[in-house]
Amino acid sequence: MHSGLDEPKVLFRVNDEVLVRLKHPFGQLVLGSLEKTMPILAKTILEEKPKKVIAVGDIVAINMRKAGLPNDLIIVDGKTMRGRTADCVDRAHSLTVRNPSGEITQEALDALKSAVRGNRVRTIYVQGEEDLLALPLATLAPIGSLIVYGQPLVGLVIIRITSSAKREARRILSNMSV
Questions:
Q1: Which is nearest to 45 in space by CA: 68, 75, 29?
Q2: For the chain, which residues score pLDDT lower than 50?
Q3: How far apart are CA 175 and CA 18, in angstroms?
Q4: Which one, of 14, 40, 18, 16, lies nearest residue 29 by Cα?
Q5: Confidence at residue 85, expressed as pLDDT on a 0 to 100 scale
Q6: How far is CA 97 from the centre of its chain?
Q7: What is the rounded distance in angstroms from the CA atom of residue 175 to the CA atom of residue 54?
Q8: Residue-level pLDDT at 61
Q9: What's residue 153's pLDDT?
Q10: Which of 5, 16, 23, 158 is the most buried (most CB within 10 A)?
Q11: What are the structural domain ranges in the chain?
């Protein structure tokens, strides 16, 4: 999706106020190791039958795949706290975008919009960092969807997309405007 050497346009940037807010999970925190959290996630998906299941982060995406859990979209950057991760990108249906750490670019936002609208994109590979992309995803995903992301060394977070979750994501993003 990116073109040439031009820098991507930054729409949102983390600041101190947002950093404090993001220290608290945005959604339901499921404590424990992947061996404990994946069965809970599987039960949640089975019972709630979400419109879309979106995984943000390599470890969550890889472990959802290993557990045979469905996902409609994954957003990964090929990295984890411990270094590089195994490749989990569906190259046939992927987009690559640039999104620097602590920022959200127009390029990344456009790719999220396109993928959530239902085109054939199944993977967004981020050159930079994908962590913050759960926020715009929460504003874009249909109500009744789930977004799942890892909370390093703690567990995983399940965001149930409701109108109040959308409002909270918009509020956080408005505090990040460049």
A1: 68
A2: 3
A3: 7
A4: 40
A5: 52
A6: 14
A7: 24
A8: 92
A9: 87
A10: 158
A11: 10-174
**Three-state DSSP string of 103-170:** EEEHHHHHHHHHHHCCCCCCEEEEEECCHHHHHHHHHHCCCCCEEEEEECCCEEEEEECCHHHHHHHH
* 10-174 under CATH 2.60.290, yes or no: no
Q: How many CB atoms lie within 10 A of CB 32?
A: 13
Quote the CA–CA distance of 18 and 135 in Å, as a whole number.
Answer: 11
Selection from 106, 108, 173, 104 nearest residue 138 by Cα: 173
Nearest of 26, 15, 2 to residue 147 by alpha carbon:
26
Cα separation, 107 vs 116, whole angstroms: 14
Nearest-angstrom CA–CA distance, 50 and 161: 9
Grouping H, G, I as helix, E, B as strand and the rest as coil, residue 78 is coil
Give the pLDDT confidence score for residue 90 in this predicted structure: 53
Angle, helices 34-48/58-66, rounded to nearest 10 degrees: 70
Helix/strand/coil for 21: helix
Asked if 78 and 171 count as a contact pair (C-beta separation under 8 A), the reply is no
